[in-house]
Q: What sequence folds into this?
């Protein structure tokens, strides 16, 4: 009995010695104070089934731009101006020349026209008729109505609207042909002027302008200064012999300076031959600076 007691004591002492000295940390049963503190595991990041993980997006780190040294910018050369072509002559519509077909110049007559409608010609005894498609002689026009004759020598007369004949078509065709010819003439005039060297202009004489630079008239009521301008070739469209009247010189402002304007009645070349029109010359410092048509304002060639 006593031996069993000693045996238990020996075994208990051996167990305590093993637990104190031999048991690894964390496995001691009696000397638990010698065990290291228990570290709790972090909660698993595994998302619960059915729930979506919350992903927090991180803002990207700012990227620093690499700034290269600035290079001097060479300005682009200014575009060269395009070569200026001589502007084509401008012609008014034929409706302007004919007053919208109500004032056809007398120089357009007489001419043969084709009838679009029947025309009845009255004579002192009886009357005659020319059916549409036939021809008659247009003698004159007034307010859109033509006076016709069956022949150039017949005394019979008929009244027919302009649209009852092919007169408009004839005049339109003639005008288009005339514009081509006249356009070439005006271009040739402009080229000739451009090729000519500028002549040395002599000062106006005492017979041409007064003390204030006002153009003076001569014994024929003409202005020698303007006549000299036409004869020198400054303009070719108007000739001294085609002037029908000279109006009084009127003060005006030219290029911001006091000058004079003189209107003249004249005859100029048109599709209908020589026709009356009006132009004016501008005079500054005793010299003619330009001629312009008063109706259109265009420069006289």
A:
């Amino acid at each position: 009995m006593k031996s069993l007691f000693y045996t238990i004591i020996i075994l208990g002492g051996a167990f305590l010695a093993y637990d104190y000295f031999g048991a690894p940390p964390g496995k001691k049963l009696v000397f638990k104070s010698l065990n290291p503190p228990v570290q709790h595991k972090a909660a698993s990041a595994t998302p619960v089934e059915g729930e979506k993980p919350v992903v927090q997006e991180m803002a990207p780190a700012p990227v620093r731009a690499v700034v290269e040294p600035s290079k001097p910018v060479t300005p682009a050369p200014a575009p060269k101006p395009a070569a200026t072509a001589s502007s084509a002559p401008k012609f008014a519509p034929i409706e302007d020349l004919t007053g919208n077909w109500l004032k056809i110049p007398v120089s357009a007559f007489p001419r043969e026209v084709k009838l679009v409608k029947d025309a009845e010609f009255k004579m002192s005894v009886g009357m005659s008729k020319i059916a549409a498609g036939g021809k008659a002689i247009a003698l004159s026009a007034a307010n859109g109505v033509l006076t016709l004759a069956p022949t150039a020598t017949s005394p019979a007369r008929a009244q027919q609207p302009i649209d009852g004949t092919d007169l408009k078509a004839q005049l339109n065709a003639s005008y288009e042909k005339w514009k081509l010819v006249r356009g070439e003439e005006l271009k040739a005039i402009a080229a000739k002027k451009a090729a000519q060297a500028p002549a040395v202009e002599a000062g106006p004489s005492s017979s041409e302008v007064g003390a204030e630079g006002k153009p003076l008239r001569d014994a024929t009521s003409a202005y020698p200064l303007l006549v000299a301008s036409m004869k020198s070739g400054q303009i070719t469209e108007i000739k001294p012999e085609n002037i029908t009247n000279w109006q009084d010189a009127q003060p005006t402002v030219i290029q911001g300076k006091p000058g004079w304007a003189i209107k003249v009645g004249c005859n100029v070349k048109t599709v209908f031959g020589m026709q009356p029109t009006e132009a004016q010359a501008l005079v500054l410092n005793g010299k003619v600076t330009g001629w312009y048509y008063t109706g259109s304002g265009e420069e006289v060639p």
Q: What stands out?
A: Residues 2 and 65 are 93 Å apart (CA to CA). The two ends are 159 Å apart (CA to CA). Residues 167-195 form the longest helix (29 residues).
